[in-house]
Design goal:
Number of strands: 22
Low-confidence stretches: none
Strand order of the largest sheet: 3-2-1-4-5-6
Number of domains: 4
Distance between the termini: 11 Å
CATH architecture of the largest domain: 3-Layer(aba) Sandwich
Largest sheet: 6 strands, parallel
CATH topology of the largest domain: Rossmann fold
Radius of gyration: 23 Å
CATH superfamily of the largest domain: NAD(P)-binding Rossmann-like Domain
Number of helices: 13
Helix content: 25-40%
Shape: globular
Length: about 450
């Protein structure tokens, strides 16, 4: 499939890297250094030029493209490129728009399937998910909302420590598909023994969260108080959501103008002007008794440091927003409870939109160290009629869930794929190509 990507920033290059093996990718990037870096790193064609220049688009063979991804850092470029591409006949366009004032513009483009991705909307949903399900380290929604993937941390007092997966039995509506240990993700077997400090990934229907809490011996206490760092759009949105849920909420912002705006905008939220990496500021905001601390600024270092301080001062749960992929290891190592990756969240939203147009990738996990793929079983799919135990799936992959109409199946060795089944697979990157070949994509 011929796909044109405008913008080789964090999101554009990340998606290009993950699609270039199976698809014909051309990336348009205005900055010479960024373009050269991507060209040297991955097997993609990178054109240096302006994405809103129609001659550059034509040179990228935009008229042959099945999909345009306009994900540069400039809203105007993305919107103009989408407009031109629509006139040249591109059937599917995905455009990233940051400024909420511009969100309606792409929707005015007629006679084309266009999807608008608004990063702060996506991150806000992630924050809401953390507030609604504080037990889960991360959640991903799959299979049109019918399946969820939960990332869960194994603590010292977790009842399943030292128990093998075989000893846990065979649950009907969920399955552990991966274990992350010391930064390394592996596909577990029945002999895999759960250890303190592990992160486990469970696939299943959304309702399994209650069962997982029981399995992990978790008795969640109600969130009564929270401290949010960051008076920008995200921080204000999180504070507003917390206050709306009758949670006593305080917000810390170092910039005087932003602090003033937050105080004016937010009802029932106490705003402090100060530095969240300063112990006195955190104490003044009542961090010692806070049930939840969220660092949502645009500064990764500030977010991580303030969360570490908050945790040491008594905050019961901590969450941080981050953009640099290497930070996930640091965040887990220092004991921060939750992390939201801007890049991964936006990329996964785009991949879920691409899935409806023949791209198997649905979600990237742990900054691309693993992936979730979804396949619909079609007449030409090679494994129809063959028991799963006789299919040579590669090491590093697991068939996690099958949806057959409204029925959720945890496939065992005797599972036989039927026409119309939707198969959800958790896989390490090195196994992706073989999985796609097996499933006839």
């Amino acid at each position: 499939m011929h796909i044109v990507i405008i913008g080789a920033g964090q999101v554009g290059s990340f998606i290009a890297r993950n699609l270039c093996i199976e698809h014909d990718i051309i990336v348009i990037e205005n900055d010479q250094e960024t373009a050269e870096r991507l060209r040297e790193s991955y097997d993609v064609i990178v054109m240096q030029g302006d994405g809103e220049d129609i001659s550059v688009l034509k040179e990228a063979q935009i008229e042959k493209a099945a999909i345009l991804l306009a994900v540069s850092g400039d809203d105007r470029t993305n919107i103009m490129a989408s407009t031109y591409s629509a006139t040249l006949g591109v059937p599917k366009i995905i455009v990233r728009v940051r400024n909420p004032n511009f969100l309606e513009y792409p929707k005015l483009i007629k006679n084309v399937d266009i999807s608008v991705v608004h990063p702060w909307e996506i991150i806000s949903e992630k924050i809401a998910s953390l507030i609604g399900s504080p037990f889960a380290w991360k959640t991903e929604t799959l299979a049109m909302g019918k399946i969820k993937m939960f990332k869960l941390k194994v603590e010292d007092n977790t009842p399943i420590v030292g128990i093998t997966l075989a000893e846990l039995g065979t649950p009907k509506a969920w399955i552990f598909v991966a274990v992350s240990r010391n930064g390394q993700i592996s596909i577990p077997t029945g002999e895999t023994k759960i250890q303190t400090g592990d992160y486990v990934f469970a696939l299943g229907v959304p309702e399994i969260l209650g069962k997982l809490k029981e399995l992990f011996g978790v008795h969640e206490q109600e969130i009564k108080s929270a401290v949010v760092v960051g008076g920008g759009r995200l921080g204000r949105g999180a504070a507003r959501l917390l206050a709306k849920n009758n949670i006593s909420t305080k917000l810390i912002e170092s910039n005087p103008e932003r602090a003033r705006k937050a105080a004016e905008d937010l009802d029932n939220v106490l705003v402090f002007k100060g530095d969240a990496t300063d112990t006195d500021t955190l104490k003044e905001a009542g961090i010692e008794s806070a049930d939840y601390f969220m660092a949502l600024t645009g500064d990764d270092e500030n977010n991580v440091l303030s969360a570490l301080l908050a945790r040491n001062l008594g905050a019961k749960r901590t969450a941080v927003l981050y953009t640099k992929p290497d930070y996930i290891d640091v965040i887990e190592a220092i004991g921060v409870d939750r992390a939201i990756s801007v890049r991964l969240s936006v990329a996964n939203e785009i991949l879920s939109l691409l899935h409806m147009h023949g791209v198997a990738h649905v979600a990237l996990v742990e900054e691309g160290r693993a992936e979730v793929l979804e396949f619909d079983i079609k007449p030409e799919t090679k494994i129809i009629g063959t028991p799963l135990k006789d299919v040579d799936f590669p090491e590093g992959s697991i068939v996690g869930i099958v949806l057959r109409g409204e029925e959720v199946i945890i496939p065992r060795g005797n599972y036989i794929a039927a026409l119309g089944d939707r198969v959800v697979i958790f896989t390490l990157p090195e196994a992706v190509r073989k999985v796609e070949r097996i499933l006839g994509q």
